[in-house]
Amino acid sequence: MPELADITAFVADETGLDRSWLTPERDIFGRGGISGDDCDELLRSLSERYQIDMSKHLWYFHHAEEASFNLGGLFFKPPNARVTHIPVTPTLLLEAATSGHWPVTYPHHRLPKRRYDMWLNAIIACAIIVAIAIAYFS
User: Fold this and answer.
1) What is the pTM of this model?
2) Which domain range does residue 15 map to?
3) How large is the greatest C-alpha to C-alpha distance in the chain, in angstroms?
4) What would the pLDDT profile of 9-31 be if each residue is shown by its tens digit?
5) Total domain count for the chain?
6) Do residues 15 and 38 touch, judged by C-beta distance below 8 A?
7) pLDDT by residue (tens digit) across 17-76?
C-alpha cells in the first residue's frame, strides 16, 4: 500500500514541484501552476503506477485546458469555467491509489453539447486565413 510520502515523491518527480511545498492538502493543479496536458500526464502516470480506474474522472473540475489563445472563451465559457473547482491534493491522490479508483463524487452539472468557444475560434482562424489570402493575392 502506498503512503502519503510515496505519492508526494511521485508528484514531485513527475512535476518538478518541491516536495516540501507538497503538503497533504495543497492543490497541486490550482496552486502548483500545472494545467492541461501536464495534468493529464501526471494522472495517467499515477493511474498506471498504482492501477487506478480513472473512468469517472472529469478533468474540467480540477484544472484548465492547456494554455492557448481562446478568444471564443471571452464569449462562451470553457468547461472548467462552468463548474466549481475541486482541488487535486496529495491526500486525494493517495485515496485514489489505495482504493484503485478515482474517489471524487462530482456535483450535478450540465455542460452544453457543443463547445461554442472552440467553434468561434475556428471561425476566427478561418476569417484570418481568408483575409491574409485576399491581401496576398490582391
Assistant:
1) 0.79
2) 4-137
3) 68
4) 999 999 999 999 999 999 999 87
5) 1
6) yes
7) 999 999 999 999 987 778 888 999 999 999 999 999 999 999 989 988 765 666 666 777
